[in-house]
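Run log // design_07
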């Protein structure tokens, strides 16, 4: 078997698995408040800045509007957000937090630290976390540029050493 086709040599598998498992760590903390992880991400965006167009929320989450619309519809039905037509452009939908949505911020205040501490303390040192964030941000921004058809300086592809335990 060619080494480039071994599962343990795939960056995509590591990213996918880490993402899936970290996201899973949020589930028990969010489900007690009736939230899913994608809904939590929408709340994070709106807690930073309320009253945003659907397009802006989708861009911030690196999602398409047709992906986020059903999610927003469920959140509106649950009374967490409201959607209204834009005043300048009636085709634009503005998403706002309801009182319930704003109140969830206090109820979920410990979620970032609980999950962050579990992931960092059990996986990497707190000193290494900023470098990990920088590397992940770099991957995300370059992949987003590729997706948008913009040129990207590819840099050097790292060799994976699977000899370490």
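design_07 sequence
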């Amino acid at each position: 078997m060619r080494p480039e086709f071994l599962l343990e040599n795939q960056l995509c598998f590591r990213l996918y698995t880490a993402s899936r498992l970290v996201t899973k760590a949020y589930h028990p903390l969010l489900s007690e408040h009736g939230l899913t992880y994608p809904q939590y991400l929408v709340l994070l965006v709106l807690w930073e800045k309320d009253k945003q167009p659907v397009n802006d929320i989708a861009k911030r989450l690196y999602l398409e509007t047709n992906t986020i619309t059903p999610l927003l519809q469920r959140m509106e039905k649950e009374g967490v957000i409201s959607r209204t037509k834009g005043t300048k452009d009636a085709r634009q939908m503005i998403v706002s937090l309801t009182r319930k949505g704003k109140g969830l911020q206090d109820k979920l205040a410990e979620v970032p630290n609980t999950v962050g501490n579990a992931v960092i303390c059990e996986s990497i040192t707190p000193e290494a976390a900023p470098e990990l964030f920088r590397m992940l941000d770099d991957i995300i921004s370059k992949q987003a540029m590729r997706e948008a058809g913009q040129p990207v300086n590819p840099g050097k592809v790292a060799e994976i050493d699977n000899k370490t335990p």
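The chain is about 55% helix and 5% strand.
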